[in-house]
């Protein structure tokens, strides 16, 4: 240390710690000349002693003015060393960097000034300290003192210039530090970081694109910054990188795709738009690299399809179509199960557009990878069934298309119809709101006859009789009114003349027995008018209730629609279709006279040409009082013949059908009686309990009153006797015998 003091005059030593900047500056200039002389003479030991003295006595001094003098002195030494300064940098630079965190803002300011002067001298030689300098500048960019910030910005620009022209800069060592700092929220630090990313990306020899996945999330995080300037800078940097990706032959799409998927769900609108735009480009450019990320990408796209911002919706839809058009196979790493899982989750979305696209994906996978989809059918089947209750008709129609696609296989067809009936049974509102839509669509997508036959088979064995009746009534109304079932109606019209119609009639009859009005409608449709008339006459008082009359009202109104045009035209030949006329009059007799349906049917029957009923031998036979259990095979209206019992493939055994109908109706009647009896016993039991409780209360009150009364006297007793009502004998009047005597 004595060597250093002998080389530096006492005045210089004293002025370096002076409170006046001018004195410190002059002392530094003298120190610079001294070091130049020592350098020219090659006295490196004294130079080292001078540097050591400046660090210990000045840079590390507890007094601020000493620290300021030490910083300006170290800068002066570096200037004096000139080209030989590089060998002393390991001693000079660290204390300057440490001063960046000094409590005194003026010390921090002079530290920036000192390092600026040092950097100007050594240029690229101080790159070995870059990470430490970068870290210090990162903190100084957010310094509370404006002067320190200005000095740090000047130093920052110089360091950027040095780095861009240096061939010793290591991007590999710098990226971990950059990645760590990208999570800082301070706007000044963010601006500092974006500036460095932009500068480094502009250097041809530095491959920032290769390290983009390390700091991409940080850039996207800045897109939601409250500062408009920072958002613009981050967006500009991202746009530049995206352009480089388009022009680059080799890009790591996978790691970045994971980041983009997360950012596509950002609450910030601008961030979502940028993320979905990047995903769109990745889907177009990524190709095979993105196959294993398709499920994640789809999970990000589907919610954005329903985004409140139109730009996001447009890009999301375009990306979705692009992704769906890519042809990949499971052997290429395409995970069908993962895609189905994403689509299943999105079926619970609150937005209709997202649910629709999720269903489109399931349908697409079913068409392209049917075998794989059926392997995961158990995972999605319940969700697809629940979707039938969706509030959107479009969603329900798409769900039915998916179900129909699955039901192409016989085992899945049976399973689908069973589950549909189960859902209708469990949710009555589903049958009311969606029943017609679901059944009609299934008849279009699958064979209508096949659907109705399967439904009838299931309902035939239904234990819940009320549900079976309701379901049959719904199916019957759909059969009579839906344009999609016109071929089925045509087939039923020929039930008495062709085998296909007969088999369908018999198949439906077994379950249609749960509803008298459904059976009558089926007979009218099949032109089995005699059987319809017999069914009407078989009805008893219990059958004619409000529900029955409501169904009858609907049927009467349906008779006036184009579907039953053939029936109305047959009324022009009453002699040939006498059983039709008897059936209609039978229905008329069941209707209340003041009802609108009664008036409609009566008006229609008044238009029938006049003829004599006496010529109708068939009517006579039907009303001759023959019990229904002995109902024989007879010819239907016209020339259509029923089964005579010996040719089962040529006709219908209506006797057996009638017996079947009565058996089912007896079950319904028995259930109704049981329900009424239970209700009666329940109400009677509650009433008797109330009566007993009332009597007990009255007895208690009488006992209390008697206890409070005084004992009765003889006078009061005789008075009480006089006040008693006369006995029965006294009320009969005086004895006549005694009077006469």
Automatic annotation (TrEMBL):
What keywords are assigned to this protein? Membrane, Repeat
Provide the residue span(s) of the region labelled Disordered: 670-741
Q: Where does the UniProt entry say this protein principally localizes?
A: membrane
Task: Indicate, by first and last residue, each region the UniProt record lists as having compositional bias (Polar residues).
Answer: 719-728
Please list the residue ranges annotated as the Vacuolar protein 14 C-terminal Fig4-binding domain.
429-608
Ranges of the HEAT repeats in the UniProt entry: 92-127
Q: What is this protein called?
A: Protein VAC14 homolog
């Amino acid at each position: 240390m004595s060597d250093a003091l002998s080389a530096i005059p006492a005045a210089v030593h004293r002025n370096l710690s002076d409170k006046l900047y001018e004195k410190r500056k002059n002392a530094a200039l003298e120190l610079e000349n001294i070091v130049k002389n020592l350098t020219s003479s090659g006295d490196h030991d004294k130079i080292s002693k001078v540097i050591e003295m400046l660090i210990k006595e000045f840079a590390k001094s507890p007094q601020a003015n000493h620290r300021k003098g030490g910083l300006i002195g170290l800068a002066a030494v570096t200037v004096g060393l000139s080209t030989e300064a590089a060998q002393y940098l390991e001693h000079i630079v660290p204390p300057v960097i440490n001063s960046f965190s000094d409590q005194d803002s003026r010390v921090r300011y002079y530290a920036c000034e000192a390092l600026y002067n040092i950097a100007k001298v050594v240029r690229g030689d101080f790159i070995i300290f870059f990470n430490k300098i970068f870290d210090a500048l990162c903190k100084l960019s957010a310094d509370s003192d404006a002067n320190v910030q200005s000095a740090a910005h000047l130093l920052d620009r110089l360091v950027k210039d040095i780095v861009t022209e240096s061939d010793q800069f290591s991007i590999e060592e710098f990226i971990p530090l950059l990645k760590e700092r990208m999570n800082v929220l301070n706007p000044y630090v963010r601006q500092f970081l974006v500036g460095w990313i932009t500068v480094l990306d502009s250097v041809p020899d530095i491959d920032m694109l290769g390290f983009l996945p390390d700091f991409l999330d940080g850039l996207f995080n800045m897109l939601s910054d409250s500062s408009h300037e920072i958002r613009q800078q981050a967006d500009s940097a991202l746009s530049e990188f995206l352009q480089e990706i388009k022009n680059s032959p080799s890009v790591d799409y996978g790691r970045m795709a994971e980041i983009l998927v997360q950012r596509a769900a950002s609450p910030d609108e601008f961030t979502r738009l940028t993320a979905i735009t990047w995903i769109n480009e990745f889907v177009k450019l990524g190709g095979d690299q993105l196959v294993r990320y398709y499920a994640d990408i789809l999970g990000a796209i589907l919610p954005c399809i329903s985004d409140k911002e139109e730009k996001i919706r447009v890009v999301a839809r375009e990306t979705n179509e692009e992704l769906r058009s890519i042809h990949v196979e499971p052997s290429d790493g395409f995970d069908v199960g993962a895609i189905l899982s994403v689509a299943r989750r999105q079926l619970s979305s609150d937005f209709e557009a997202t649910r629709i696209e999720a269903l489109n994906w399931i349908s697409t996978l079913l068409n392209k990878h049917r075998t794989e989809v059926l392997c995961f059918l158990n995972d999605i089947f319940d969700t697809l069934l629940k979707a039938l209750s969706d509030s959107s008709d479009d969603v329900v129609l798409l769900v039915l298309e998916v179900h129909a696609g699955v039901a192409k296989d016989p085992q899945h067809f049976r399973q689908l119809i069973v589950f549909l009936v189960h859902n209708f049974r469990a949710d009555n509102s589903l049958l009311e709101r969606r029943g017609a839509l679901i059944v009609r669509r299934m008849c279009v997508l699958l064979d209508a006859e096949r659907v109705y036959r399967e439904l009838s088979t299931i309902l035939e064995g239904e234990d819940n009789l009320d549900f079976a009746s309701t379901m049959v009534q719904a199916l019957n109304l759909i059969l009579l009114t839906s344009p999609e079932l016109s071929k089925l109606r045509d087939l039923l019209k020929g039930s008495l003349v062709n085998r296909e119609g007969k088999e369908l009639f018999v198949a439906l009859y077994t379950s249609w027995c749960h509803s008298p009005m459904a059976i009558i409608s089926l007979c009218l449709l099949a032109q089995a008018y005699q059987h319809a008339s017999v069914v009407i006459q078989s009805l008893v008082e219990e059958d004619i209730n409000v529900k029955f009359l409501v169904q009858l009202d609907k049927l009467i109104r349906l008779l006036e629609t184009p579907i039953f045009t053939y029936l109305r035209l047959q009324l022009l030949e009453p002699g040939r279709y006498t059983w039709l006329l008897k059936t209609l009059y039978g229905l008329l007799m069941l209707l209340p006279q003041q009802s609108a349906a009664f008036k409609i049917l009566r008006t229609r029957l008044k238009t029938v040409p006049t003829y004599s009923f006496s010529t109708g031998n068939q009517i006579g036979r039907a009303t001759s009082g023959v019990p229904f259990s002995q109902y024989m095979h007879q010819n239907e209206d016209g020339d259509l013949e029923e089964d005579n019992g010996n040719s089962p493939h040529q006709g219908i055994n209506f006797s057996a059908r009638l017996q079947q109908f009565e058996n089912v109706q007896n079950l319904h009647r028995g259930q109704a009686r049981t329900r009424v009896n239970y209700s009666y016993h329940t109400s009677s039991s509650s009433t008797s309990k109330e009566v007993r409780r009332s009597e007990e209360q009255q007895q208690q009150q009488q006992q209390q009153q008697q206890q409070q009364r005084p004992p009765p006297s003889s006078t009061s007793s005789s008075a009480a006797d006089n006040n008693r009502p006369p006995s029965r004998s006294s009320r009969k009047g005086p004895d006549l015998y005694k009077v006469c005597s």
